[in-house]
Amino acid sequence: MFRWLRNSLLTGIVVALPVTVTVWLIYTFVNFVDRVIKPLIPEQYNPETYLPFALPGLGVVVAVVGLTLLGALAANFFGRSLIGIGERLLNSVPLVRNVYGAVKQIAETVFSSRQQSFQEVVLVEFPTKGSYAVGFVTADARGEIQDDVSEDAIGVFVPTTPNPTSGFLLYTPRSRVMPLSMSVEEAAKMIISFGLVTPEGLARADMPDEVKKAIKKSEKPD
Asked: Would the keyword Transmembrane be found if you checked this record's keyword annotation (predicted)?
């Protein structure tokens, strides 16, 4: 009886935890956007002024509509002219132009439909010899970095666990990384879960020979 109760409790936690976390994240995001956007809406145009109750998600709707209109405006000649004038003004301010330029370049890279932000998943020897970390290939090395590396170099982002938004950017010769068959999404799940969620494609038989040798060596008793 005790074993049945314990198993039922653990099963309930496994079922409820993902749903609860997902709902909480959505609720937190909607509340945050509402707190930021709602005060910007003129009182005469705010539906909550005429209703006896609040409208959750109103700020999200207004933000989506506003960003869509901004994108449509930026797509025509008049909008591009205004944006060009604004950029020239920002670029004339020493500190602001550095921040604006960096944020703009990151946004264009992340949201560009012409290329993927992360191209493939690889194993890279990091942080010490014989240790391997999962990384994402970001782009080919260019300019001074490529000139200083004798081989064809690539940029590899090695995220931290369980927060993949921070990490290390490595530039290494392509010949020194080992491609993995898993997708970027599968690798992200594995990193966030401390390696507990392992993709089926990461069976030991599919690992590169160098990694299998390192694992066998580490499993040998001292």
From this structure: yes
